[in-house]
Write a structure and sequence with these properties.
Blueprint (H helix, E strand, L loop, with lengths): L4 E7 L7 H10 L3 E6 L8 H9 L5 E4 L9 H13 L3 E4 L4 E2 L3 H34 L11 H13 L4 H8 L3 H14 L1
Parallel strand pairs: 1-2, 1-3, 3-4
Antiparallel strand pairs: 4-5
Helix pairs in contact: 3-4, 5-6
């Protein structure tokens, strides 16, 4: 198996320069280099996707700084955790993290714990926010369809004068909802 060091460098705008990152990465050494000029706030980036597609178990991903993977802490930690689970070493030069060393593994373990904590806190805050909204009378989920629309659609269906497409267009309900209501009636009778 041919293991590789794959370097990744990113800046957020076309006006910014990669030179500082490239100098540090070149000094460290790599077999392949992926660069991109794209904001780190987006998870779906061509260069990052390319990196994640080509790395294999035993390879090493090298970045000048952990922040080059993204701007959002959770996204960065998720990427590193994914690499770790796939058996891919991770090296960040600025933070001096190397997952092939005992200290680096410990750091990534702590990062994984922090990542899980952040995910759990987000879930907790979401649940608390939903409970608070419900307590204030905010209805959760999809808005219910107007009962008059459903009755009208069913009358049109029963008349056999309209196609499903015509009913959906004229009444303003989805085809799926219409069929659901038709089937609900069948079950009730």
């Amino acid at each position: 198996m041919n293991v590789q060091k794959i370097a990744y460098a990113r800046v957020s705008t076309e006006q910014q320069e990669l030179a500082r990152q490239l100098d540090a990465l070149e000094k460290y050494g790599y077999d392949k280099l992926i660069t991109e000029k794209y904001t780190g706030t987006k998870k779906d980036r061509v260069g990052l996707n390319q990196l994640l597609d080509i790395v294999r178990t035993g390879d090493t991903v090298v970045v000048e700084s952990i922040s080059r993977l993204g701007r959002n802490t959770l996204d960065i930690l998720t990427i590193i955790d994914d690499l770790n689970k796939r058996g891919i070493n991770f090296v960040s030069l600025k933070e001096n993290i190397d997952s092939s060393t005992s200290t680096g593994k410990a750091m990534l373990g702590m990062i994984a714990v922090i990542s899980q904590l952040e995910r759990d806190l987000i879930v907790d805050r979401t649940k608390e926010g939903m409970a608070s909204a419900k307590a204030r009378g905010v209805r959760m989920g999809r808005p219910s369809l107007d009962e008059d629309k459903i009755k009208t659609a069913l009358k049109m269906y029963d008349s056999n004068d309209y196609s499903i497409k015509e009913i959906v267009q004229q009444v303003g309900i989805s085809q799926g909802k219409l069929y659901k209501e038709i089937n609900k009636r069948k079950v009730q009778s």
